[in-house]
Amino acid sequence: MSVSTLVSTARPARDRRTTTIGLIMVAIGLFITIAFGLMVPGWAHSQLTFDPINSAVHAPWHLGALTVVTRWSDVVLGLLAIALGVEVVLRHPRRALSRFGVTSVLFLLALLLWSSRTSGPASVNFVDLTAVLVGSSSLAMVLIYGSLSGVMCERAGVVNIAIEGQFIVGAFLGSMIESTTGNFWFATLAGALAGALLGWVLAFLALRYMSDQIIVGVVIVTLMSSLSSYLNLQVLTPYPQYNLGNLAPNVAIPLLYKIPVLGPVLFNQTGFFYLAVALIALVSFGLFRTRWGLRVRAVGEHPKAAESVGINVVATRYRNVVLGGAIAGIGGVAFMATQGQFQPGYTSGFGYIALAALIFGRWTPSGAVVASVLFGISSYLANNLQSYSIPVSTEVLNMFPYLITIAVVAGLIGRVRPPAADGIPYQRS
Amino acid sequence: MRVELRNITKRFGSFTANDSISLTVEPGQIHCLLGENGAGKSTLMNVLFGLLHPDDGEILLDGERVSFANSGEAVRHGIGMVHQHFMLVPVFSVAENVVLGFEPTKSLNRLDHETARREIRDLSAKYGLDVDPDAIVESLPVGVQQRVEILKALSHDARLLILDEPTAVLTPQEIEALIDIMRALAAAGTSILFITHKLKEVRAVADVITVIRQGRVIDSVSPETSESDLAALMVGRSVSLTVAKEPVELGEGSLELRDVVVRDDRGLVAVNGVSLTVRAGEIVALAGVQGNGQTELAEAIAGMRPVESGQILLGGRDITNNSPREILDAGLGHVPEDRHRDGLVLSMSVADNLVLNTPRRAPFARRGTRQLAAVNDNARDLVQRFDIRTTGIDATAGSLSGGNQQKVIVARELSRPLVAFMASQPTRGLDVGSIEYVHRQIVAERNAGRGVLIISSELDEVLALGDRIAVMYAGRITGLVDSSTSREEIGLLMAGGS
To answer: Global pTM?
Structure first.
């Protein structure tokens, strides 16, 4: 008898993991409520402004500032997080991981409010929320390029660790070509071609010689980062006219850009941003709605089965890795076009954060986008700590994407399943 | 369709897998290809299906010469294949799997799911193979997955159906059902090439039997040929298919399981309260279709998987959740199911593999230093006693044939004092000759008064060896019967009946 009762009450592992996610969310909520909320003196205020200051964009609206009592607004955010966590624990929704993403955003928002609180009853301090979102969005955009590149490669069964290297080469060439031609189209084309070439190198070594894909990827990154440092020293430093670092112009979408807050974030962006949005839709549609996507996914899941119905596994993988490389190469140009002048090491591991976003997003384009937005915000805050007087060190905030990814990969929160043949060399029987 | 293979030769390096093989399948004929593992059956079928290119020879379909660049072309020529390891994408739906490679599309290359579903339903109705087009393949039982595989093979108007070892994963009832399907298809004019090494099935279903040995056609015979004659043709010498067992006086329980509960890798309960006593001097054969918890149970007994609750006793001593080494030292001999993963270090020498579980014990090591002379003496002795065919004791285990690899494991486990002996799938992938040898060793161990637990999904093996037969289904022991029980009855128990 004991056995049957034991079995009927025992939950499968997925449920246990979902419960863990929920409990972590509740813990985050409690932390927000207490540390950012109740421990703050009642007179402390946080002020949010929505009108872009110092922005090239003309703001056609004036919303003024929103002043909130730090304690109670963070308590509200904390309680929201707790409520989400309790829902996950009790109801085990299928999309527990995306709710966890929402909780992470709540945490970052609470942190922002808390760190911008007034230090005395009479002092003044404010956070430009629109600027935060605009700044985060351009970083998120770069991560989206990177993680879409990862989706393209890994869905076909090739691990692309080289995204960082493709970013570097894209940024380097992007800056050079734009500086010499004054044309971002040429820069984009050059970045795409260079990224595709690196993708081809990865594919060639991985598919022709069955080399370990992780090692080849790391080698490509190391090579690109050293090569770009060298060329920077030899070419860009003595000839600064090749590294002007012009930013891509914003293209405002008529009418829509006038929407408060959302307008500058979504509808007054560079062409690279709109291209990223188009790519999200395109990759998503392609992978899950078309014949091409079905075949790509079959190749990534069970290459022998694909081969047995006449699908060319090796050609499919080549194609996807080269396309993925091109996407990451454009991502590098986009990085340069929003962050300015090329410097060695300034992509600072964004390629790896993009990989983290890919995993957190469960190898789906939409999931990768959500994760990219989350990691974009955390990276932006990490880069701009002083302006928001966040009393956390840059390094700690920079750990955030990796910590989440480790937790996800280790199965602590939720379980992700990569394509079954991801990273495994394919040998025809 | 009339299929003719003429002098097909396929070489891999210096190894000739198919040596000028010729055979003809007539329309509506069930043609069995019988041969041991490694005889070249699968290679020949992969050539016919366009997965491999022959070095020589030609293929004629209805008298017309063809050659396939890939298997898609073979499919377009009316050849369908059911692979031994299913060619199904586990995370795809039934419909997606069946149409893969031949997808109906709408504009923009979009998949036409509606048409795909309708095609599956039509096929299901036409062949009486019932499946839900929207089911995700990995959620289906193995028998149903095979049905999907057959539907997929038939979906492009296949006039020749190749079935590669299709019965390995099926229950006896599912095998019956499969044979019915094959007969119906043949009656409707489909030619069938059926590959197997199981003698009973061949005789039950074949119109013609072609025996292949070492890449050559040995003979074509009628299904009236006796099992022992077929076995002799396969192996090249006469083999005994039964093992003589003398009565032995039973002793105390040597291996006892009490209400053992074990979880699988996904955390689901795989062994659901199993109690079983193996007494000294008997062989208990644990029968069951793969995936009913036997693997997890064996791993738990060997200490390779945690026991959630319950007790395991070896010679009266509690070994529950002890480490594998403690359990081996306590006197359990263990032949693991996956010999490449758990039984041998393929890149190490035969001599080292023969002391793999006692490397730090005298005489093989003293004061923390290996005694290579003792290791080599031991190896020479065992190689001779267990008839391990190797180029030398320094040859890597990976260079041996499957049968000789298994002999290395059996020799290692049986060459030390044991309380009980457990072997999982002891003859999987072995040829008839090696099977005979391993079986005799197992029976000898029983006769010497050890308790023996055999875990096998081969019903023939279970019946040949077991003094008692326990049947496992869905994590429980559903029946404990003696060895005179009929195949049908055990088959029913394996399928969950009672």
So the answer is: 0.79
